[in-house]
Design a protein that fits this description.
Elements: E1 58-62, E2 71-76, E3 79-86, E4 89-92, E5 97-98, E6 101-103, E7 111-113, E8 116-118, E9 121-126, E10 132-139, H1 140-151, H2 159-178, E11 189-190, H3 208-223, E12 227-231, E13 234-235, E14 240-241, H4 251-254, H5 269-278, E15 290-295, H6 297-306, E16 313-321, E17 327-334, E18 338-342, H7 343-350, E19 360-364, E20 375-380, E21 388-389, H8 390-398, H9 403-410, E22 415-418
The structure holds zinc ion.
């Protein structure tokens, strides 16, 4: 495992934050993003445009549920607008036509699509593979509020939990969009868990309780406005997950990227205790840190066919684990041949919501034994396990820890910096 400087820096209290003194990352030139639609190779005109980058201080979020849609209907101050694709252009019912159509602005209070409300503006453009792409250009703090509301059960969340999640989400977005060590910056983030869940503005009901929740959310994001996690002079590419199971995972065991540092595995007492409590049956299964899931024969055989192993999956076992017991690599043996697979890829193929983590504590039949029907997995934790653990953070906040204390638990080498002017994050040559 790669080692980083172990100088532990004390996380400054919010009130004690000073303007950043750190050197700023040089933003690599944008080349191509695996999540972006590829640009057309032919020179015919008009070309399909790349996703326009959001103005500085804003985030471009791609609304996945409209990927390749044929028609999008929106409501703004101007009324209801329908947008469709015509060839390589888009046309709207209010008379706009072009390679990109923009509806709403930061000052219009947002745009409604279905039951969701998006602050900022909505951009609609052709998708390279047909249909439309829909992008929300949203001011950073509005975006962070939306992410916190989507990522946490906010009704029962304390201010410290909301604040720590807000800082982690803001740091992730800044690091992804403004450049990461060894990697170019990106133009947009997905609104799914590919990046951070984001469903637009939180819309509370009219009840007094809902209004209080919304006020608490607004206050938490406002309190942490412009505060970022910083490691070695760079904004931390802060990852987070639902529950680690008792110890967080190493970055390089999960992501096929250069480890940005700052996310060394740590013990998470709250999850470890919850995992122990699960066996007593004192918590409902949905709140458990441990889990079981059974793959039915058809799912297993379909997996075998998909991987070219034959028509039946005969056995499955780990070939590489980390020191906590997470499975890093598995071998799947079918009736024709065998194949080694990254366990995160196995999770993707079987469904991230089914195989909830790579911390697999056992299977039935046992690993390597013949599978003659279904296969039951038992494991700990939910999600990839890297960085900030939402379950552990909730428990720590209920014990009275502040947001800086919670963040220090999961990112011990990070400091908090309030970036009063976001331009401080830009290299001097990039104005
Ligand atoms: Zn945890």
């Amino acid at each position: 495992m790669r080692r980083f400087s172990l100088v532990v820096l004390v996380i400054a209290a919010f009130s004690a934050c000073h303007p950043p003194q750190w050197t700023t990352p040089v933003r690599a030139p944008f080349t191509e993003d695996p999540l972006e639609p590829s640009r057309p190779r032919e020179a015919s005109s008009p070309r399909i445009p790349a996703v326009p980058a959001a103005p500085f201080g804003s985030v471009a979020a791609r609304l996945e549920r409209f990927e390749r849609a044929t028609l999008v209907e929106l409501k703004s101050l101007a009324g209801t607008i329908r947008v469709e694709r015509r060839g390589r252009e888009v046309v709207s019912s209010d008379g706009q036509r072009g390679s990109v159509i923009t509806i709403g602005s930061a000052t219009t209070g947002g745009v409604a699509i279905g039951d969701r409300l998006y602050r900022g503006s909505i951009l609609i453009l052709p998708h390279a593979q047909g249909g439309l792409s829909v992008i929300n250009h949203v001011p950073m703090e509005d975006y962070v509020r939306g992410v916190v509301a989507s990522e946490l059960a906010i009704w029962s969340a304390s201010p410290a939990l909301l604040e720590s999640q807000a800082i982690a989400a803001r740091s992730y977005a800044e690091a992804q969009l403004r450049g990461r060590p060894g990697k170019h910056s990106r133009t947009f983030l997905s609104d799914s868990t590919l990046d951070q869940a984001y469903a637009g503005e939180y819309q509370p009901g009219k009840s007094e309780g809902a209004q209080k929740v919304a006020a608490r959310l607004r206050r938490a994001v406002e309190t942490t406005r412009d505060i970022l996690l910083v490691v070695n002079g760079r904004v931390l590419d802060a990852r987070f997950h639902a529950s680690c199971g008792g110890r967080t995972a190493s970055f390089e065991s999960v992501f096929d990227e250069i480890d940005p540092g700052g996310m060394t595995p740590v013990r998470c007492d709250a999850c470890a205790k919850s995992a122990a409590d699960d066996s007593t049956g004192s918590t409902p299964a949905s709140a458990n840190v441990t889990w079981k899931w059974t793959a039915e024969p058809e799912q297993l055989n379909s997996l075998a066919r998909q991987l070219g192993l034959g028509t039946r999956l005969r056995s499955l076992f780990p070939v590489r684990r980390d020191n906590t017991g997470r499975w890093l690599e598995v071998r799947l043996v079918g009736d024709r041949t065998g194949h080694n697979l990254d366990t995160t890829e196995l999770r993707r193929l079987l469904g991230f919501n089914n195989l909830k983590s790579t911390w697999i504590i056992g299977t039935r039949p046992a690993p390597g034994n013949p599978i003659n029907g279904s296969l039951t997995f038992a494991g700990r934790g939910r999600g990839h396990g890297v960085g900030f653990c939402q379950t552990g953070a909730r428990e720590l906040s209920e014990r009275g820890l502040s947001a800086p204390q919670i963040l220090k638990t999961y990112f011990p080498t990070a400091t908090l910096s309030r970036v009063s002017s976001r331009s401080a994050l830009l290299p001097a040559s990039d104005s």
